[in-house]
Amino acid sequence: MKAVVMSVAGGPEVLQLREVPEPQIRGERELRIRLKAAGVNPIDTKLRRRGTFYPEEMPAILGCDGAGVVEAVGSGVRHFTVGDEVYFCHGGLGRQAGNYAELIVVDERFVAPKPRTLSFAEAAAAPLVLITAWEALYDRGRLQASQRVLIHGGAGGVGHVAIQLARLRGSKVATTVSTPEKAVFVRSLGADLPIFYRQTDFVRAVWDWTGGEGVDLALDTLGGAILEQTFPAVRVYGDIVTLLAPAPETDWRVARDRNLRVGFELMLTPMLKNLTNAQQNQAEILRQCARLIDQGQLRIQLSHTFPLAEAAAAHRLLEQGSVLGKIALTIPE
Hints:
- This protein folds into 2 domains: 2-126 and 271-330, Quinone Oxidoreductase, Chain A, domain 1, CATH 3.90.180.10; 129-264, 3-Layer(aba) Sandwich (Rossmann fold), CATH 3.40.50.
- The protein is α/β, with parallel strands linked by helices and 333 residues long.
- The longest helix is centred in the C-terminal third of the chain and has 19 residues, at 276-294.
- The termini are close together.
- Helix 7 links the parallel strand 11 (215-220) and strand 12 (234-242).
- Helices cover 31% and strands 26% of the residues.
């Protein structure tokens, strides 16, 4: 089969289209899936640049997100049959082959039926950001109805889903954006207050919006200095959740003085720690999101698609940092 392979860490040029052996079903609950599309996420570009989590196991096929059609099933598969359309987040971290390929084998417990109303490319763009936003807001942040939320990077992959999930919970949403185009976009998703962070002090904007109290929950999708800068924007005894590791120089004094509850969200943990139950829970999130998508209550913004052979170009675009929504690779028959 054809797959995009990296043999060394480096720039986008290390992604090479090659012929590799087809994966085989080895477990009784495994599915072999003919991939139609693969999502492209920031974790892919990070692993390409620095090396995978398992550098001793090279070459590697990247890509955590996939969507396709079940081609074969193990003897103990209970919930899927040949021909089913599915989507999932699994593989691509270095130990297990990822989705930049024509075929993949995945345990059925980690897979969900594809939303009927999405194309394969849209579906492949969805799993990682759906799970991340859901866990960050609902599980880590304990978001409640009528609360006020600050979401950084609301026009990005996780951000644009988080806005919608917050609104579905009955919350009010402020979000940082960089351009008028992105402000229009986030308003279309239900954001109440777009904040142009390059021209405006977002903490001051939040104080004005909340009458000086601060938001109940802040979601940091950007990392770096943003985490520390956001502490004063959160109300006393409020919550802040970050998707990134805090910078070593982070000053935690404001967070402590305001008695903030700090949460970390890494949706890859179940894969990295081989936690079957947690991966099953993530598949259930995808099933719930599929229902919301098919009911018209949740949408995925697919900004660009590239053929599988042009994975390097997709990485270059993502690393420019100005993508509205998500990128996917399409995989021809």
